[in-house]
Design brief:
seven-stranded mixed beta sheet; single chain; six-stranded antiparallel beta sheet; binds adenosine-5'-triphosphate; flat; about 20% strand; 26 strands; about 25% helix; alpha/beta
Length: about 525
């Protein structure tokens, strides 16, 4: 039995939230009239984790979408992706909402064609809440096809997009379009032309052959307000008018997991934007111009600048997709396979090495001592120092990021080492003699042994770790590449002459929180 009833006109597409646990339980969402669900008699939910007003829904019949906002404190979810208080999402027909994350309080959204109540007996006679699904109303304006995910990813769906197992994906700038002006960056939103006539014919053929056409584009300019988002969306719509085939577009506007070569745009396509169809990786492909090719000549001998980056090729490699350059795919030019990958390949990290060549001694001594870490940002000092496998309970990790200044680190180190049995680890970069001396002096004055643990990690490896940290730990303050370069320019190799008892080189031994982290770590990240 439905908890609500409503009289409707024949031409109205009714919108209903249907409980997955009890399909009899349905809530009608009237056009533009908010409905709040939570721990109430209406829903029959008594779980105390649920707020009385947990989620607010507002249907927009003109666009066949529903805006949902989480009001309660505990997490809810849309299509199994968790939401927090204050977060809003747009729902489409068929989307699943969990009033509480990981619970059975789930509903799905149906747009239902209402009955005619005997006005014309040839017309439908089903109850308005029976699951007779009307085709979605055509969206009234182009903006209704746009969505924003996680505040940074823009997604566009052509209204007649059909999901497929075969995906033909393309980069946009330099691949599907080039500037008319001949400049690297467009001078305005109209400064574009289709890369070559083969683009439209190839895409039509792919579509006829059962491929869904997708565009993945990095547009960091939007994130830093250099490019106007509204104007850019219009530009996409104009390009798609020329392509004339239904297309899905993903636009990464920030330096986050969605920015190529990180895999976020692909992952969200597979999880949320392919109608639940799995992707045939063997038949799918990605084509882009950022392929890491050096300066070269065209067939008629004209010089061609080197590629501005390798991010398209790396994106395809990270995902495991077949990769083509626009020249290969559209112009059928033969492949030269001349390209450069980043110096550091995360797949090369060795898991079968020891942390240190020191096999005779315990890495961390049970006796009181001072350990000075030396290593650039991202070299893994904190990860190593805080790894409980190697530390003992009476070991204080002292860190400038937490305390605020080296002076505070010095006094904290003195305090602990003056105590009965505490050892300390100075978890700062300590690149030069001057920065190490502050701590060596304390050890000397207290007659405590002092060792240096020197991180055996290259600059490119540290940059990779740093990027990985950015993508996996949003709370950690971002470290620019300039800070890493500055460490290396200041670096003075530690020497026993500084008053250090022992210098131990610490190798990078990979160890991951979970398989997802390992998978991401082993991808190329720029
Ligand atoms: N052995 C390891 N295996 C897997 N990941 C690691 C390892 N060591 C470090 N990482 C990852 O590399 C990133 C950087 O490590 P960490 O924060 O320890 O560096 P750091 O040298 O302390 O940097 P900073 O000086 O900026 O604090 C982190 O995301 C960490 O999870």
């Amino acid at each position: 039995m439905s908890k609500l009833s409503v009289k409707t006109n024949d031409n109205v597409t009714l919108c209903v939230l249907v409980s997955d646990e009890n399909p009899e339980l349905k809530f009608i969402l009237l056009d533009n009239e908010p409905l709040t669900l939570g721990r109430t008699q209406q829903t029959g939910i008594v779980d105390q984790r649920m707020s009385k007003n947990q989620m607010k829904f507002v249907a927009d019949y003109s666009t066949a979408r529903v805006l949902v906002e989480q009001l309660g404190s505990n997490r809810s979810a849309v299509n199994n992706e968790s939401m927090i208080k204050g977060e809003k999402r747009l729902l489409n027909h068929g989307d699943k909402v969990s009033l509480l994350f990981n619970s059975n309080f789930t509903y799905h959204l149906d747009f239902v064609t209402p009955p005619t109540y005997g006005v014309d007996s040839n017309k439908r006679t089903t109850n308005c809440l029976d699951k007779e699904i009307s085709p979605k109303k055509p969206r009234s304006d182009s903006t209704s096809k746009w969505e924003t995910r996680d505040g940074t990813l823009l997604v566009y769906n052509s209204s007649n997009i059909v999901h497929k197992e075969k995906i033909a994906a393309f980069d946009m700038d330099g691949t599907l379009i080039v500037t008319q002006s001949g400049k690297v960056f467009p001078v305005d939103e109209n400064d574009w032309q289709i890369y070559s006539p083969e683009v439209t014919t190839s895409i039509k053929k792919l579509s006829d052959d059962g491929y869904k056409i997708v565009i993945f584009t990095n547009q960091g300019g939007i994130g830093v307000n250099k490019v106007n988002e509204k104007t850019f969306k219009k530009k996409i719509e104009n390009i798609l008018k020329v392509i004339k085939i239904p297309v899905q577009v993903f636009i990464a506007t920030r330096k986050d997991i969605y920015r190529k070569p990180a895999p976020g745009m692909w992952n969200i396509l597979v999880s949320d934007y392919n109608g639940g169809l799995s992707v045939d990786m063997d038949k799918s492909l990605f084509c882009g111009d950022a392929a890491g090719r050096p300066t070269r000549s065209s067939a008629d001998g004209k010089p061609i600048k080197k590629d501005h980056s390798c991010c398209d090729r790396l994106f395809a490699m990270n995902i495991g997709l077949k990769f083509y350059t626009p020249e290969e795919y559209f112009l059928k030019e033969s492949t030269e396979e001349l390209y450069a990958l980043p110096v550091f390949n995360p797949n090369d990290v060795m898991s079968n090495i020891l942390y240190t060549d020191l096999t005779s001694k315990a890495l961390f001594s049970p006796n009181k001592e001072m350990i000075i870490m030396v290593g650039c940002p991202g070299s893994g000092k904190s990860y190593f120092a805080s790894n409980k496998l190697f530390c003992h309970d009476r070991m204080k990790i002292i860190n400038r990021d937490t305390l605020g200044s080296w002076q505070k680190c010095v006094s904290e180190a003195k305090k602990y080492l003056s105590g009965v049995s505490w050892s300390v680890v100075i978890d700062n970069t300590n690149p030069d003699i001057e920065s190490r001396k502050r701590f060596i002096d304390i050890a000397k004055s207290l007659k405590i042994p002092c060792r240096v643990f020197l991180m055996n990690v290259s600059k490119d490896h540290a940059k990779h770790n740093n990027k990985f940290r950015e993508l996996t730990d949003r709370k950690h303050q971002k470290v620019s590449d300039a800070v890493i370069h500055s460490y290396f320019s200041k670096f003075q190799e530690p020497s026993k002459n500084e008053g250090i008892d022992e210098i131990v080189k610490i190798n990078f031994v990979p160890h991951f929180k979970d398989p997802e982290h390992e998978k991401l770590y082993k991808m190329f990240l720029l």
